[in-house]
Structures are given as structure tokens and as C-alpha cells.
Amino acid sequence: MNGRDDRKGFREGLESSGGDLRVLLALNAILSTAFAWLIVWGLGVANVVDYSLSTVALAALALFVLTLAVVR
Predict the structure, then answer these.
(1) HSE of 40, CA atoms in CB hemisphere, 13 A
(2) What one-character-per-residue DSSP string does the chain give?
(3) Could you read off the pLDDT of 52-61 as tens digits, one per residue?
(4) Segments of the chain scoring below 50 in pLDDT
């Protein structure tokens, strides 16, 4: 068996796997929140936006929805 056949089989396996939607949503929520915190913190240091919990939550929600729209 050569390497090309292994790659083809691996690709088919990945494409046929739908994954668990709960894992996707949980990872999306965690990573969106972390990235939103980082963005809002940086913009707060630059005095562009107020660094507050509501600003981070709004940015995280926007990133969450944007990521879902792009992935789906």
C-alpha cells in the first residue's frame, strides 16, 4: 500500500465525518470569547472603545455568529 492511497482514505474519512455539533458550538463560544476579550482589551488600551464586560460580550456574540455563518 502506498502513501497516496492512505491519504485518499484519510481524506474520505474526514469528509464523511460530520462531528458533534455540541463540540463545535462549545469551541466556538470559548474561542470567540477569548478572541473578543483580546480585541476589546487592545482597543481599550488604544482608547478606541470602553473596556467592559458588555463590550466583550457583544464582540464575542458577533464573532460567534460570524464564525457560524462562515463555517456552515
Answers:
(1) 20
(2) --HHHHHHHHHHHHHH----HHHHHHHHHHHHHHHHHHHHHHHHHTTSS---HHHHHHHHHHHHHHHHHHH-
(3) 999 999 999 9
(4) none
Residue 65, amino acid: V
C-alpha radius of gyration, the chain, whole number: 18
**Domain boundaries along the sequence of the chain:** 19-71
Map grid coordinates 458533534 to a residue. 20
Output the pLDDT for position 1.
53
Distance (Å, whole) CA 46 – CA 42: 6
Q: C-alpha distances in angstroms, 25 versus 10, 13, 15, 30?
A: 25, 22, 19, 9
Looking at residue 36, what is its pLDDT? 97
- The C-alpha cell that represents 5 in the structure block: 492511497
